[in-house]
Amino acid sequence: MQIITLGDEILRQKAEKIHIIDDEIINTAKQMLVILKRDKGVGVAGPQIGFLKRIFVIHIEGDEERVFINPSILETSHVTSKYEEGCLSVPGIYANVIRSESIKIQAWNEKGRPFTIEASGLLARVIQHEYDHLEGVIFLDHVPEKKRDKLVAKYEKSQNRDNT
Ligand code: ZN
Question: Which of 67, 104, 109, 141 could make a disulfide contact with 75, Cβ separation 3.0–4.6 Å?
Fold first, then answer.
């Protein structure tokens, strides 16, 4: 399963709600966790594998594997933090992004059970990054325009180099 990269319109579309957590969804979640391990990522969202549904998975080293289906962010802290992010869909590009330091989120897991968690630090950051993917937003959208243009140009240059 390939990761869709920047430039593909799929990454800009809004993902659809999942109505039934069936075998297809469960298997997709499992495959997404395998992709994370393979590509050494901490999170991946449905649209990144061309699956335009509201699902993402997160696996931060030292933490459990987490599946979020139909997530809703209930609260975001006014306190923010800045941290360098990357994305499997924009390989080789990193940028500082300001996000809420902590959040409260409600979702369903792969067993079809609803849960609510309060997360802070890296987990809160990764959740916000992955949630953005469900809305067609990528981390570079949070970077000031001039800086973003430079990074996108750098990315495009690196892609052309890989193709020739
Ligand atoms: Zn990403």
Answer: 104
